[in-house]
Design goal:
With 803 residues, the protein is an all-beta fold.
Length: 803
């Protein structure tokens, strides 16, 4: 919204604010784009290291993502210290941060991100203890610390001391051997039992229809128990091509196979419950329907449970499926089915849940998606599509809501709702806007609307009206009443689109005060949007149309102007007596020492709060500001802001002018274009996850420092608590990242070198802090981060520069 809005625009803003749905109930898919902004060709694996960094194996190489920077690692035929192949099949991040990568036809790689060194493992014809096969499809380290490698030549166990492999392979006359050498998936259940799914559904891999099977490994004996398809047994697997294994939180063991076979396994009895598609009940959780167009290699690619308890499974070409047990209906996502949902692949190959609860999906057309299953929406109440402007709660439980259509009365005890028109003859040229409701010290309710001022006659349930009369200079100065305010002497002040009015309640007459008497325009320079008497007894007015804030002296009828050239919407005095003002230019704080309003900006958001439309303080002294970006929370120290916007279901530019209120029980209310949001501040912010902060690099004179090498890093940077530098190593920099993938673009970082910097600094897009010629001494480098949920975190690193 631009600052050039006229007073007529204010009327439109008040009366005809656009009606946008508060939020969608659908799953929201966010895409991660590669540097070329096309796709990753084919996403074969997703993992996260101990620092929170995400890693992706694709058919275009290896990718690393920290929420801000996406970097790639690819094969260089001229460099033996590079990936063996860009055609990666799987990825596994080890406990020490090293990364195991399986490729298609080029063996196994061990990659150390700190040193960027690669160790290659390939089959060697003259070494029976080498890797079984050049195609590596699955990697897992079990609870006992053993590393298992699944290949197209069987299952391998890696010995880290000898760098050799122990082989488990199919033996034709041994029913206790692996059922098939083409390993597709390795899974360890909660009991520590290892399960191996085998059998390729792709005919070009040379597999017969009967090849494959599910295998349970007895680690003590090295033998396997096989579970195979039996055409005469409905409690066996639908197919021997086993591609997905998963144990959910309830202990249910799920198996996915080719033919879109989805099963629940009874591990004690060794039987399977087939979940076959039922056309009569397509909403049930089952494998997708098989149709003539289904490819021969179609299969369940993964099955998983997200952080909220819902189920997801993927297929090669039949799409992605989502099942919420609470709803009891399955949802299907595919580019050909519902492209508007945001999932634009034919199928989904891999899924992974990162530590912050975000679910990652790798598509078969090369897209990477992330979904936040823990998305916490603020409760929204729809009011028949009408914008809500104001609230009031009486001690007896009667709750009032002012809308652009009517005044609504809700009895919270009985649940009875009544609606009132403040004027019985509304016309299209005179909209039914109700803007303000105010209870005075005598218990009377006053209502301001586009029809004037109204006193609620509770006994007769009708309104006593006070209107403008052009022939009477002691009538209300204008019928558009925006503000009603009672001062400590019980004087009732009325703010309108044309001036301020003091009401004589005994006579019903008004004394008019104009900011600019020379301006006679109805929509001119005399609009009063808010009135406030501060704790010192000073009377403040906020006004529209570039007339800013005015300090009003009723005795002399004079105004002292502040912030001329701004259009202001609201005034608020917090519990500490600090005066705040909100307007199109943002949020302002009054500094009594310099007698001026200073635009507020916090250390993490120097641009400040855009378009501050309403202000309210909760019981813990947090300020909550309605803005064009959503609801902004300002902490009691007034140095950190958190924005509750689209992640909480609040779309941009939908909150209404001055529509914030604290109920008797501390619940906060904010009006918007179609109703209102309500929440308990404590309940809203409890259990909100904080972002992780990670140091991603340390540089001396712009050269990256690696662990060891006789340098200042004795170990991994993430494990360092202190860095000691020589006197001539005083040009350095830190790279860092905020790890929270719900909405990475909304993460903010600030940094501060204690004993050196005078203030906190916001980060640039590269998320790096530079320091030059720092004198010898002891310093503490601090980073603070806030995520899209408005939760802050802090991390520090001690830095010593020797004399």
């Amino acid at each position: 919204m631009k600052a050039q809005l006229s007073i007529f625009a204010l009327l439109l803003f008040l009366l005809f604010i656009r009606t946008i749905p508060a939020f969608s109930q659908q799953i929201t898919f966010h895409k991660l784009l590669p540097p070329d902004e096309l796709n990753f060709e084919f996403v074969t694996g997703i993992a996260q290291d101990f620092n929170g960094i995400m890693w992706y194996s694709t058919k275009k190489g290896l990718y690393r993502y920290d929420g801000n920077q996406l970097s790639s690692f690819k094969n260089n035929p001229l460099n033996p210290n590079s990936l063996l192949s860009n055609f990666l099949e799987t990825i596994f991040v080890d406990l020490d941060g090293t990364i195991w990568l399986g490729s298609l036809g080029k063996g196994l790689d061990l990659f150390d991100p700190e040193s960027e060194n690669y160790t290659h493992f390939r089959p060697e014809p003259n070494n029976p203890s080498s890797l079984s096969n050049d195609t590596v499809t699955a990697i897992l380290r079990d609870k006992q610390g053993t590393l298992w490698i699944g290949t197209h030549g069987g299952l391998d166990q890696f010995d880290p001391k000898t760098k050799q492999f122990i082989h488990y392979r199919y033996k034709e006359n041994d029913p206790t051997s692996l059922s098939n050498n083409q390993v597709r998936v390795i899974y360890e259940d909660r009991q520590g039992i290892l399960w191996i799914g085998t059998g390729s559904p792709y005919p070009d891999n040379g597999g017969r229809p009967q090849d494959g099977g599910l295998n349970r490994l007895d680690k003590k004996t090295g033998t396997f128990t096989r579970y195979l398809h039996n055409p005469n047994d409905q409690s066996s697997l639908i197919s021997n091509k086993v591609s997905a294994i998963f144990e959910d939180r309830q202990g249910i063991f799920w198996i996915g196979t080719s033919g879109n076979g989805l099963h629940k396994m009874n591990r004690q009895q060794g039987t399977f419950e087939r979940l076959v598609f039922d056309p009569a009940h397509p909403e049930k959780l089952s494998g997708p329907a098989i149709n003539p167009q289904t490819t021969a290699y179609e299969h369940i690619t993964f099955f998983t449970q997200d952080a909220a308890g819902s189920y997801w499974f993927g297929t090669v070409d039949a799409g992605l499926y989502y099942f919420n047990p609470g709803v009891g209906k399955i949802a299907h996502y595919q580019v050909s089915v519902n492209p508007a949902a945001g999932f634009t692949d034919n199928g989904a190959w891999k899924a992974f849940t990162s530590r912050d609860g975000v679910l990652w999906i790798g598509g078969t057309q090369g897209n990477i998606y992330h979904i936040d299953p823990l998305l916490k929406k603020i409760s929204h109440t729809l009011i028949a599509g009408a914008p809500v402007n104001n609230f009031y709660e009486e001690p007896n439980g009667i709750f009032w809501i002012c809308t652009n259509q009517e005044l609504i009365q809700i009895n919270k005890t009985s649940g009875v709702t009544k609606k009132y028109l403040v004027d019985n003859n509304p016309t299209l040229m005179n909209p039914k806007g109700v803007y303000k409701i105010k209870r005075d010290l005598q218990g009377n309710l006053w209502i301001g609307s586009s029809f004037g001022l109204h006193l609620w006659d509770k006994k007769n349930e009708k309104f006593i009206q006070y209107k403008h009369d052009s022939a009477d200079s002691n009538s209300l100065s204008n019928n558009n009443v925006i503000e009603i305010y009672e001062d400590r002497h019980s004087n009732l002040w009325i703010g309108t689109l044309r001036g301020l009015n003091l009401m004589d309640r005994a006579t019903g007459r008004f004394t008019q005060y104009l900011l600019n008497p020379a301006d006679t325009a109805t929509f001119g320079l005399n609009t009063i949007t808010a009135v406030l008497e501060d704790k010192t007894g000073k009377m403040w007015l906020s006004s529209w149309n570039y007339t800013g804030i005015n300090l009003f002296n009723p005795q002399t009828r004079t105004f002292k102007n502040y912030l001329k050239g701004t259009s202001m919407m609201c005034l608020y005095e917090d519990s500490d007596g600090v005066l705040w003002a909100g307007g199109l230019d943002g949020l302002y704080r009054f500094n009594r020492e310099v007698d001026n309003f200073i635009r507020y900006s916090d250390i993490g958001s120097p641009a400040g709060i855009s378009n501050a439309m309403s202000i309210v303080e909760d019981n813990q002294k947090y300020l909550w500001i309605g803005s064009e970006e959503g609801i902004v929370r300002l902490n009691p120290q007034r140095n950190e802001t958190s924005t509750f916007g689209i992640n909480y279901g609040i779309s941009e530019n939908t909150l209404t002018f001055k529509a914030s209120y604290k109920g008797l029980n501390g619940v906060l209310y904010f009006g918007d274009a179609t109703g209102y949001f309500s929440f308990s501040p404590a309940e809203l912010t409890q259990k909100l996850r904080a972002p992780e902060i990670v140091f991603t690099a340390f540089r001396l004179a712009d050269h990256t420092v690696k662990p060891g090498e006789g340098g200042p890093l004795k170990g991994r940077l993430s494990e360092q608590k202190e860095i000691v530098l020589r006197y001539n190593q005083n040009i350095f920099s830190f790279d860092f990242a905020a790890i929270d993938y719900a909405n990475p673009k909304k993460n903010r970082l600030i940094y501060f070198l204690e004993n050196y910097d005078n203030s906190w600094h916001p980060t640039s897009s590269e998320q790096r802090a530079y320091y030059f010629n720092v004198p010898p001494g002891k310093y503490t480098f601090r980073i603070k981060a806030v995520n899209s949920y408005g939760t802050w975190a802090e991390k520090k690193m001690e830095v010593t520069i020797l004399p």
